[in-house]
Amino acid sequence: MAFNYDKYMRPGKLPHIWCPGCAHGIVMKSIIRALDRVGLDKDRTVIVSGIGCASRMPGYVDFNTLHTTHGRSLAFATGVKMADPSLNVICVAGDGDSLAIGGNHFIHACRRNIDITMIVFNNNIYGMTGGQFSPTTPHGKLASTTPYGNPDYAFDVAELSMGAGATYVSRGTVYHAIPLERQIADGITHKGFSVIDALCTCPTTYGRRNKLGSPIDMILWFKDNTVGLKAAQKLSPEELEGKILTGVFRNDIKPEYCEEYQKIIEMAQGAVAGG
Amino acid sequence: MSAVKALKEERVVAEHEGRQITIIPRYCKGCEICVKLCPQSVLEIKDFKVHVARIQDCTECMLCEIRCPDFAIEIAGKGKKGKS
């Protein structure tokens, strides 16, 4: 049955600015369906973004939205959440925005375990600025600033955020749009810092340069080259060679930052009142 | 609400035995994701926009609707009323 997106869209904003075949629209739809599934109040939800292709997303949706400086979406989101912990704060950012320019904010938000949901639109490239290589561009791939192949090795967003201390970590792809929706919904309901690594495609600057074919070829690549975590347990290391793992990597409970901070406020006030 | 209604886009609706496939041509960028995903070859590209060619073959699997990045396709099921 058709899902009615109009309820969550700002009227007159479509068509969006993303290139033909850009998978960011698929992630945006998954986010909207996830928000609907959780049943969040539009007026009590804040979507924060930085700069980049993915960060244009809050402009189209009818929530409280905040479009901030490059890489600092989590810093602003932390401020919003601390000012009013009852708000549902969701951060959307591209891979360069969250892991390179905002990498510092990213690991420290993970460490604090503040109740924010971070959705990384991971398309392996800086699309908007002309296809420079990003921290998630795979080794050897071409970008406008690595014309002979990328000498760096890519970040694994899931392992990075687990190492930094995020309590909900999952990875989905745009081909698996329904599981991605479920993961985003779980991340929103999870109390603590949630990271959802949404693997997207950039046919214009990444696919074209690396000869990965049409937008649909890039999306179907995920079908053949990703393995769910449960299925991966039955496979040998040779069979898993070159495959990307998807699914929920971690779902832990740890004390949440705003609550811990509130305890400190109460403790300090108690100390003052007690003389 | 009147302002919202005034902004409603032109919709091309194909109908067959209670099933409706709605295309919003201004949103469609002709990326062909829906055309290639459809297991029944219901959709076709004409003049860089998607068109419904064989609605009678549609099984309402929703592959195209879920993965259209441009919000250009809506499918309302057979015998059921769409939420919109």
Could you estimate the helical fraction of the residues of chain B in percent?
Answer: 10-25%
Give the rounded overall mean pLDDT of chain A.
92
Largest interface in this structure: A-B, 33 and 28 residues
User: Treating each run of at least 4 consecutive H or I residues as one helix, how many helices of chain B?
Assistant: 3
Give the number of DSSP strands of chain A: 10
Q: Which class best fits the helix and strand makeup of chain B?
A: alpha+beta
> What's the domain count of chain A?
1
Rounded to an integer in angstroms, the radius of gyration calculated over CA atoms of chain A is 19 Å
Helix/strand order of chain A, N-terminal first: HEEHEHHEEEHEHEHHEHEH
Q: What Rg of chain B do the Cα atoms give? A: 13 Å
What is the C-level CATH assignment of chain B? Answer: Alpha Beta
Distance between the termini of chain A: 63 Å
- Average pLDDT of chain B works out at 83
**CATH topology (level 3) name of chain B:** Alpha-Beta Plaits
Under the CATH scheme, which class of chain A? Alpha Beta
Order of helices and strands of chain B: HEEHEEHE
Question: Can you characterise this structure?
Answer:
The complex is a heterodimer of chains A (about 280) and B (about 80). Chain A has 10 helices and 10 strands. In chain A, helix 1 (about 25-40) packs across helix 6, helix 3 packs across helix 4 (about 105-110) and helix 4 crosses helix 5. By secondary structure, chain A is α/β, with parallel strands linked by helices. The model of chain A has no long low-confidence stretch (mean pLDDT about 90). The termini of chain A are far apart. With about 80 residues, chain B is of the alpha+beta class. Chain B has one domain: Alpha-Beta Plaits (2-Layer Sandwich). Chain B has 3 helices and 5 strands. In chain B, a hairpin with a 2-residue loop joins strand 1 (about 10-15) and strand 2 (about 20-25). The two termini of chain B are about 15 Å apart. The interface of A and B includes residues 20, 23 and 29 of A.
